[in-house]
Amino acid sequence: MADSAAPVKVAECGCITALGDAGATHAALLRGECALRPVPVLGRDGGQAVPLALLPGRLLDEAAPPDWLEAVRRLHAAIPGADWGSPGRPVFVTGSNFGVGGLYALRRTGDASFAVWGAPAACTERLRALLGWGPDVSVISHACVSAHLGLLLATRAVEAGLAEEALVFSFDFLSPFVAGGFHALKILNSGFPSPYRLCDSGAIGLGDGAAFAVLSRERGAWALAGQSVYNEMHQFTSNRGDGSGFDRCLEGVAAAARGRRIWFKGHGTGTLDAGQLEVSAAGRAFPGAPVVGWKGSLGHTLGSCGLVELAIAIESVRAGRTPGTIGGAGPTMAASVATESFENGAFDGVVCASNAFGGAHAAFLLCHA
Amino acid sequence: MADPLTARLKQLIVETLRLEGIKPEEIPDGEPLVGGGLSLDSIDALELVVRLEKEFGIKIASSEEARSALASVSALAAYIRERGDPSRLPT
After folding, report:
1. A255 and chain B in contact, CB less than 8 A
2. How far apart are CA A73 and CA A326, in angstroms?
3. A177 near A213, Cβ under 8 Å?
4. What are the domain boundaries of chain A?
5. Is domain A9-216 classified as CATH 3.40.50.2000?
6. Is A71 helix (H, G, I), strand (E, B) or coil?
7. Rounded to a whole number, what is the distance in Å from the CA of B74 to chain A's nearest CA?
8. Is the fold of A9-216 the same as that of A222-368?
């Protein structure tokens, strides 16, 4: 499914990662900094040390109320405007974790105070009260393309005249439950991620992340000129081996990108098969476009990654320089993978892509409004 | 006579994944476990790995290693013989 005629603009955008806000994160990526650190996968309960990028000072262990609330509050305070959640100003809350770690803590400790943040709807309702939003708040969670779906739905609301402006707000903070799940799948292990590198063994890192975007028909320096989502419905944790799922999704934005010089911000978690399929598909859809991925530094910020990386992509265009792919060394899966930062003034579009469990793919084209 | 480890692995596969209508002895030694005739998927593989790690004291480090170990029952038996706790192997 694609919608390439949307004139909706990004009026405001920002994020927080383990490296700071969007500006600080972009600057750190340009310096090649890696935010990932070895952390016991089960927090205070120990386990194998795995690469995680936690917000400064935050522990992996759950707390009640969650210790990430202050970070959410700080990010929210940076959003211009008011009356979010009121008629004409809906909020789309996205993510894949919400407070799910609390449910695991509840099971281990029996402490009911962990439960109230555990489920997406309850967690969002508490946030709504905390942040002063009105009742027009929707919750969207679809694994690691959650933020993309929020952007798409918010775009449609603005396009259809159902909203003057829409706020997409996404957050994912790590917990032993989340880290343990990826660890059980063996893709989160003691290795540090090397996105798009030719390796014998793949590994991902995980990161805390939160971000927002205000979409508007009237104002904003940036446009989402095309958006696409596609689900190949192949297998829960792997993609069709021919890469057709990636192709179908990218076709949805390729038409909008025709005639533009593009750079491609890929998903690039560090898994081998998906990395190869993605970089090959990017080469077919956008020949010659340099490919970058930032999860080798920030870790995978899960359902929020699409919005976190949108904020960094905007910062990159604003600053005129795109951070290269961070993580690992040695040959890359394709010559198009940019391992060094590059000037982006000669480009006039960025395609940002994310992929998710369940065979879901999403992408959008970001360009100047 | 069937190799005890191979027989135990087939039994574990059927039990762990609750494969209906399949007897352990019907699982071929050399057939791919994931994506083969058993129609196992990656979540089945995850469940199986967790059970195997507990039963044989092995530690599979990465998804690529898991894929290699689960290439077939024969490959799995060889992997466990090489890396498992010898005291936990069936005799």
Report:
1. no
2. 29
3. no
4. 9-216, 222-368
5. no
6. helix
7. 22
8. yes
Tell me the shortest Cα–Cα distance from A358 to chain B, in angstroms. 11
Question: What is the chain A residue with the closest CA to B50?
Answer: A184
Distance of CA A322 to the CA centre of its chain: 17
Contact A201/B43, CB-based, under 8 Å?
A: no
CA distance, residue A237 to nearest chain B CA (Å):
6
Tokens of A317: 């265009």
The ipTM assigned to this model is 0.81
Residue A51 gets the label, from left (phi > 0), alpha (psi -120 to 50) or beta, of beta
Cβ contact A187–B62 (<8 Å): yes
Alpha-helical regions (H) of A78-175 = 101-109, 120-131, 146-159
Chain B residues whose beta carbon lies within 8 Å of the beta carbon of residue A238: 42
Q: Is A190 close to B61, i.e. CB distance below 8 A?
A: yes
Whether the pLDDT of residue A3 is over 50: the answer is no
Q: Which amino acid is at A7?
A: P
Task: Identify whether the C-beta of residue A100 lies closer than 8 Å to the C-beta of residue A177.
Answer: yes
Half-sphere exposure of A62 (CA within 13 A, CB side): 28
H, E, C per residue of A179-220: HHHHHHCCCCCCCCCCCCECCCCCCCCEECEEEEEEEECCCC
- CATH number of A222-368, picked from 2.40.50.140, 1.10.357.10, 3.40.47.10, 3.40.630.30: 3.40.47.10
Exposed, middle or buried, A21 (CB in 10 Å: 0-12/13-18/19+)? Answer: middle
- B50 contacts in A (CB within 8 Å)? 184
The secondary structure of A142-159 as a DSSP string is BTBTHHHHHHHHHHHHHH
Chain B residues closer than 8 Å to A185 by CB: 42, 46, 63
pLDDT digits (tens, 9 = 90+) for B18-40: 998 899 999 999 988 887 788 78
Contact A186 B42 (CB under 8 A): no
Cβ distance of B49 and A186 shorter than 8 Å: yes
pTM comes to: 0.93
pLDDT tens, residue by residue, B29-68: 998 888 778 878 878 888 999 999 999 999 999 988 998 9
Confirm if A51 and A195 have CB atoms less than 8 A apart: no
- Strands of A173-221 (E only): list them: 206-207, 209-216
Is the minimum CB–CB distance between A233 and chain B shorter than 8 Å? Answer: no
